[in-house]
Amino acid sequence: MILIKRNLFEKIKAHLNKKEITFIVGPRQCGKTTLMWLLIEELKKQNKPWIFFSLDFEKDKVFFESQEKFIKKLNLEFGNTPAFVFIDEIQRKENAGLFLKGIYDRNLPYKFIVSGSGSVELKAKVHESLAGRKRIFFLSTVSLKEFINFKTEYKYETHLKKYFEIDPNSYELILEYLNFGGYPRVVLEDTFSEKLAVIHEIYTSYVEKDLSYWLKIEKPEVFTNLLKILSHQAGKLTSFTELSNTLGISIPTLKTYLYYAEKTYILKKVSPFFRNIKKELTKTPVYYFCDLGLRNFSAGVFGKIEAFSEVGFSFQNLVMLLLEERFGETGGVLHYWRSKDGAEVDFVIDVKKEIIPVEVKASFLKKPAISRSLRSFIRKYAPKEAWIVNLSLKEEVKIDKTLIKIFPIWELLI
Q: Is the pLDDT of residue 121 over 60?
């Protein structure tokens, strides 16, 4: 069976030579454990000593009762020989950050590779305690680029542009991704019924384990209803008052739930674009889903999108994910824009003191169509570039000093 190649693998492998802790974070079941075992396979080839612990395993938990017990176990296995120590699901250890900090600060001859799901406990305590002692690598669910390369058995890995330009089947793969998203186990299943069973299990384990148990949410059914509502209005302005009234919870509780969903990599909050930072912090955000399969499952349309004419906000959600992937590591921040007179632009990329407005069109454009809203933004901010992402058209036009680049979605992968 062909493995799904993860783009993060080479970066993490290169970091194995660094003293600081290699910290892999990401949503539940995104492939963190698999990635760790692939790293172990590389170490085996080089005859380098290693050990793997998982806090999901009862037999391993005993070694984490204290720092002394853990260090004694490592000394038993390796003595003073340098070795690689893998710890999976670290968020299951109470005060995990302090536990790891105390071990790291003893300057032992071991390299630690640690993974954890993104829970509030993990974000608030582990990362803070390990300041200056770790490098964080974020692993998402399988990206569109990783998905397409896997589905085409890596035949077009070095020339995806030609594949999209020549092969009409490439659009079928984009539609498949829009339907099922990128959870690895979902991608690997062949039938709809199997994919549905897997996404149901992932969703249930997320709500019951990550939220109900770890985050102490008292009413998981309210959280489920919140995700259902947001799945139908992804990318639209969020009315906290309306949501709290619909769900029967207070606005502070609602905001807490939304915060949990962000920190567990289920939702992505996009704030409005303003030149005044105070306004940006107080104005209404919009929410997108970090995985389209989970979004579709929440919305009741998992696997039911038969044509691009039906994709709606899923396409906009996909563009958001691609923009995040492209600009996230360079410090780019994603916003949306709304004016008082009703003009709106889907995204504004704020990167390196430049701004790029982005309009999303889930259609096969035949000719350039510059909306009133985009023209309004260009008049107000005069950006060097503006983008219109669609399904087919590639063209450039100019308005005043702004170059408008119209291009198909797959160009965001190149």
A: no
CA 259 distance to own-chain centroid:
15
Question: Above pLDDT 70, what percent of the chain?
Answer: 94
Question: How far apart are alpha carbons 50 and 86 in whole angstroms?
Answer: 8
**Cβ-count burial of 37 within 10 angstroms (0-12 exposed, 13-18 middle, 19+ buried)?**
exposed
> End of a domain among 88, 110, 138?
138
Q: What is the mean pLDDT of residues 192-207?
A: 94
Q: How many CB atoms lie within 10 A of CB 407?
A: 17
Q: Which long-range contacts (CB under 8 A, 24 or more apart) does 350-354 make?
A: 350/273, 351/327, 354/383, 354/384, 354/385
pTM, whole model, 2 decimals?
A: 0.91
- Kindly report the CATH number assigned to the domain that includes residue 53: 3.40.50.300
Answer yes or no: is 13 within a domain.
yes
DSSP 181-218: ---HHHHH--SHHHHHHHHHHHHHHIIIIIIIIIS--S
Angle among Cα 257, 88, 28 to the nearest 5 degrees reads 35
Residue-averaged pLDDT of the chain: 91
Q: What is the pLDDT of residue 213?
A: 66
Asked if residue 3 belongs to a domain, the reply is no
d(CA 77, CA 84): 11
**118, burial (CB in 10 Å: exposed 0-12, middle 13-18, buried 19+):** buried
Provide the number of structural domains found in the chain. 3
Domain end marker among 79, 111, 138: 138
